[in-house]
Amino acid sequence: IRASSQRASSHAFGLAVDVNIAGILDNFSDGNTQLGLIILADYFQSAGWIWGAGFRREDSMHFEVSQELLETWRGDGKI
After folding, report:
1. Beta strand 16-18 pairing with 62-65
2. Which of 3, 16, 20, 38 ranks highest by number of CB atoms within 10 Å?
3. Rounded to whole angstroms, how far apart are CA atoms 60 and 57?
4. What distance in Å separates the CA atoms of residue 67 and residue 45, rounded to the nearest whole number?
């Protein structure tokens, strides 16, 4: 996790991805979101992922596996 030496991010465990559109990263916590990320968000959310645009500090390029999806995977023996 940025600025933390005590905790690993969900990226470190393969449970999150940051998506860029055409090689351009969405600016962190600026209150704006690239249109392509808005379009992708519906697909990620319907698959059980959480979108970082709703975080306290907006992170629109971030998509993360939800706790519910993790529990489903565990119950199905996938993890």
Report:
1. antiparallel
2. 16
3. 9
4. 13
d(CA 18, CA 20) in angstroms, rounded, equals 7
CB half-sphere exposure, 34, CA atoms < 13 A: 18
Q: How confident is the model at residue 67 (pLDDT cuts 50, 70, 90)?
A: very high
| Beta bridge pairs of residue 21 | 24
- Look-up of token digits 């996790």: 1
Task: Measure the CA–CA gap between 27 and 69, rounded to whole angstroms.
Answer: 27
Q: What is the pLDDT of residues 15-54, one digit of tens each?
A: 999 999 888 888 887 887 888 999 999 999 999 999 999 9
Q: What is the pTM of this model?
A: 0.82
The answer to whether the CB of 17 falls within 8 A of the CB of 60 is no
